[in-house]
Structures are given as structure tokens and as C-alpha cells.
Specification:
The protein is an alpha+beta fold. The chain has 2 domains: 154 residues, no CATH class; 104 residues, Roll (Nuclear Transport Factor 2, Chain: A). Helices cover 38% and strands 18% of the residues. It has 8 helices and 9 strands. Strands 5, 6, 7, 8 and 9 form a 5-stranded antiparallel β-sheet that branches. A 4-stranded antiparallel β-sheet has the order 2-1-3-4. Strand 7 and strand 8 form a beta hairpin. Helix 1 packs across helix 3. The longest helix is centred in the middle third of the chain and has 70 residues. It starts with 16 loop residues before the first strand and ends with a strand.
Length: 359
């Protein structure tokens, strides 16, 4: 990690857009062996046949960044960078000048991707106040040169899987941006070509000018109304698309999540904390305390998809305690898919157990 990077040939990373990071002093990889080992693990797992993170730091491709951020979150529960910024190589050398920056950014269980917080930040940062909302949105979403195009190419995902550029009203702390430039007027004042004009001609010209102005105002009003309807329709379509995407994800992974959860439940009621460790993430779930009881039956009551991509599962379980007393409880918890773990999933929240009653 202490090697000196050489950007004399235009930088290690050739993508149009990518990520730059600064570490907290105690986490600098050259002095923190645990962080160094995590970077080496991610490189060996995903980038042995490609440019490694160790070769490109402090810059990373979007794919490198997402893989590393996810691994740091899963290892530590939460992890804070001193700074994360968009970067570009427009001047043949990597630069973060004029790009949105996230100060003291924490990656935790709520993290889904790096693009959403960067797009939200561009709507908060005063350095971008002289750009209109439309210009900022286009910077990320343009089909030919937008940042999201680079993001999709780096991760190998389709446009349908990309996060959307947020509405300003959805972003807490968003500032007011410059209004979009109005369309050029279709009515221009005419210059007299010498000589006097007749009174009737002046009246006709004035009438035509007023009529044209009224048409222009009407067209502008209709244009704003149409734009408002289109924006509202786009929001509605986006909502429906996200609902459809969530439903498809739930359908494709529900069975696997259920199998893992049932295995976890049988271990949970075995009463051995050590046996639970392969099932638990590093977040709140690590505080889970098992119960000692004989498990008679396990019925899946409900399953849903959380915003962070984890699954919320609820089970009705029949138990017999050490004194032979039988009870029925409802046990609820979240699980998240995590490759390269013992079972392919981890419990990501502390289970909640309570007496079962029909709602």
C-alpha cells in the first residue's frame, strides 16, 4: 500500500468517472494491517485478472469502490471515510476539482450504493447553486456522457438497475438552484426601414405583437403544465418500476432466504451462542442471545423486502421449555444475502420474540 502511484500516462484508471477516497488517520492501509488485509482479500476475490485496488488507490473504479465498501461494512458493521469524492480524468490526470464530495461519510446497514448520496450531495452543495436542477440531473443521467453511464459500465449492470436522480423535494437540505434558461422568444421587435409608417399599419403591427405575446404566454403556461404532468408521471412510473423490481427480487430469493432462516431458528433455540456466530452479521445482530427450548414446529408467517435489500421474515414457532410447558411465539428478524459466507446469508438484525396473537 505504500507504493508510489504513477499517473504520468494519464492515470491508472481510464474510466470517464470514478471514485476518490481519503481515510481516517487510524485507517490508512499502510499503517492499519487489518484494512490492508481486507483490500488484499477483495483484490484476490474480484480483481486478480484486472487492475487491483492496491494499484489504483486513492482512486478506485466504481466496481472496486462498491466491492470494498460492502466488505468494510460487513466486517465492521459501519465504517467511516474522511472523504469520498467523484473523480474524472478530463485533463488527462485524475482530478476531484468541481466534483461532489462526501465529508466524513459512514457506510453502514443503510448503505446501498455510492451514487445516491453523491447525487443528493450535488443538490445540497452551494458550489453548484449556479447550475439548474436540469443541468445537474443531466450531468449524471446523460445517455452519452453521464456519470451513471460510467457507473453502469464499471459494474456491468443495465440502465434499469441504476439508481435514479432524486427530486430536489426528496433531498433534505437541498438548496435553491438557478432556474432553467427560458426558450428564446419567437417575437422580435422590427426596426423601421426609414420613412413614416401609416397609423393603420402601426395598429395592425401592435395588434399582431399583442396577439403573438398572448400566444407565447399561453404556450409557456401550457409548457409548464405539460412539464409538471410529465414529471409527475415519471415519478409514478418510477414508483411502479421500483415496486415491480422489489416483487421480482422477493420472488427470486424468498425460498433461499426462508431455508436459511429456518436453519438459523433451529440453532437459535439450541441455546449455544458460539453456534450462532456463522449466522450473524457484524451489526446489531451480533448482540443476539439464543434461547433454550425444544422446537416443535416452524411456520412462515410473512416475508417482505426492505429498502436496503434485506428480507424481513416473521415465523410462528411452537416451543416446549425445560419444564414441559408448550408455548407459541412470533419470531421476527432481517436477513441479508452475503456471498462468501458459510450459508450465503447473514442475520442483520437482532431477532424480536413475543407471544403469538392473531393481528
Amino acid at each position: 500500500m505504500s507504493k508510489k502511484l504513477n499517473f504520468n500516462k494519464g492515470g491508472v484508471i481510464k474510466d470517464a468517472s470514478f471514485i476518490y477516497v481519503e481515510w481516517m488517520p487510524e485507517d490508512i492501509p499502510s499503517i492499519n494491517s487489518e484494512i490492508h488485509q481486507i483490500i488484499e482479500y477483495v483484490d484476490e476475490e474480484f480483481f486478480l485478472d484486472d487492475m487491483t485496488i492496491e494499484d489504483s488507490l486513492p482512486f478506485m473504479t466504481f466496481k472496486q469502490a462498491e466491492k470494498l465498501f460492502t466488505e468494510l461494512r460487513d466486517r465492521f458493521g459501519s465504517f467511516t471515510f474522511s472523504l469520498i469524492s467523484l473523480a474524472n480524468a478530463e485533463r488527462k490526470h485524475p482530478s476531484i476539482e468541481g466534483e461532489p464530495k462526501l465529508q466524513s461519510f459512514t457506510i453502514d446497514d443503510t448503505y446501498t450504493n455510492i451514487m445516491t448520496p453523491l447525487m443528493e450531495e450535488v443538490l445540497r452543495d452551494p458550489q453548484f447553486k449556479d447550475f439548474s436542477y436540469e443541468e445537474l440531473a443531466l450531468y449524471f443521467t446523460d445517455n452519452d456522457s453521464g456519470v451513471l453511464k460510467s457507473y453502469a459500465e464499471s459494474l456491468g449492470v443495465s440502465k434499469a438497475e441504476l439508481p435514479y436522480f432524486p427530486l430536489a423535494s426528496e433531498v433534505q437540505g437541498a438548496i435553491t438552484h438557478k432556474a432553467p434558461a427560458p426558450a428564446p422568444s419567437q417575437v422580435r421587435p422590427s426596426q423601421a426601414q426609414g420613412g413614416s409608417q401609416s397609423s393603420s399599419f402601426n395598429k395592425v403591427f401592435l395588434g399582431l405583437a399583442i396577439f403573438g405575446l398572448l400566444l407565447g404566454l399561453l404556450g409557456t403556461a401550457l409548457g409548464f403544465a405539460a412539464q409538471s404532468r410529465i414529471k409527475k408521471q415519471n415519478v409514478q412510473l418510477l414508483y411502479l418500476y421500483n415496486e415491480y423490481k422489489s416483487m421480482k427480487t422477493l420472488q427470486s430469493n424468498q425460498h433461499k432466504a426462508d431455508v436459511f432462516a429456518r436453519f438459523f431458528i433451529s440453532t437459535y433455540y439450541f441455546g449455544d451462542k458460539k453456534a450462532l456466530e456463522p449466522f450473524l452479521s457484524k451489526g446489531d445482530a451480533k448482540y443476539t442471545q439464543p434461547e433454550q427450548a425444544e422446537l416443535n414446529s416452524t411456520l412462515l408467517e410473512a416475508v417482505s423486502l426492505n429498502e436496503d435489500g434485506s428480507y424481513k421474515l416473521s415465523y410462528v414457532v411452537s416451543l416446549t421449555d425445560s419444564e414441559g410447558q408448550t408455548s407459541v411465539k412470533k419470531l421476527s428478524f432481517d436477513v441479508k444475502e452475503k456471498k462468501n459466507t458459510t450459508y450465503g446469508f447473514l442475520v442483520s438484525s437482532e431477532p424480536i420474540s413475543k407471544a403469538y396473537t392473531k393481528d
